[in-house]
Amino acid sequence: MSTTEKTSITVETNINAPVEKVWKIWTEPKHITKWNSASEDWHTPRAENDLEVGKKFLSRMEAKDGSAGFDFEGVYEDVKTHELIAYTLGDDRKVRIIFTSEGNSTKVTETFDAENTNPIEMQQSGWQAILDNFKQYVESLDELETLQFETTIHAGVEKVYHTMLDEESYAQWTAIFSPGSHYKGSWDKGSKILFLGPEENGETSGMVSRIKENIPLELVSIEHLGMVQNGQEITSGPEVESWAGALENYIFSDENGTTVLKVSLDAGKEYKDYFLETWPKALEKLKAICES
Predict the structure, then answer these.
(1) Amino acid 242: pLDDT
(2) Residue 238 carries which DSSP code?
(3) Are strands 247-255 and 258-267 parallel, antiparallel or unpaired?
(4) How far apart are CA 113 and CA 111, in angstroms?
(5) Average pLDDT score over residue span 190-203
(6) In angstroms, rounded to a whole number, what is the distance separating the alpha carbons of residues 200 and 147?
(7) pTM for the whole thing?
(8) What count of Cα atoms within 13 Å lies in the side-chain half-sphere of residue 224?
């Protein structure tokens, strides 16, 4: 009886980002689909991740021309937040990823059991290419910051909720951001909605989003997916990678017949000052409409 000894391969990289950011981008499906490929002609159109010991992950990896594809999946054996991820693949090979914090940079070391089909050198270069792609993606992202705003409106929650979302009044208070601002779509949970500016030369520009949650009179959560540019919807590519998945939340609370409205939104550095200036003005406009 003979035992075949497995060969382990190690790849590593140093990333100019703190370990908290590196961990987040490594583990969140919305990011995994952006970096998980070894070459330009492959991509990961879908990813699932249940980051707990005993739970599973899956990344669907496909050639962009549709000629080939496979599910890369496994079960977690060990998870230590910001430190270690270990899992077993479907063919019983083991993978171990160590995250080493070095202040504002992070070393990622990935060790995996080699398979028996392809040469060791090919496997090592393929896994290293994915890791290099991950490094490039992390370092290209502007960190989103969550901004928060609040106002008290002397009107009932029902009036504030409907005034904020109804088509005509929405155009009035959001004119602070852009005159001619409007939306197309539905506020129903799961629906796609376009937030648009005025037409220019017969075409519109704005945001492609979806309603992540809508609990009437309590909460509206919007997830931004991409942009509308010259009438075309763009939901992938470098133009949207840094902020796709950003959230914008409206929370409505009744305080003895008045309404406390809290707004939180994820914003990149380039928009922070603009939102800090315009959102308070927009909420003042909404307050005036509701109280009139």
Answers:
(1) 67
(2) T
(3) antiparallel
(4) 7
(5) 88
(6) 30
(7) 0.58
(8) 21
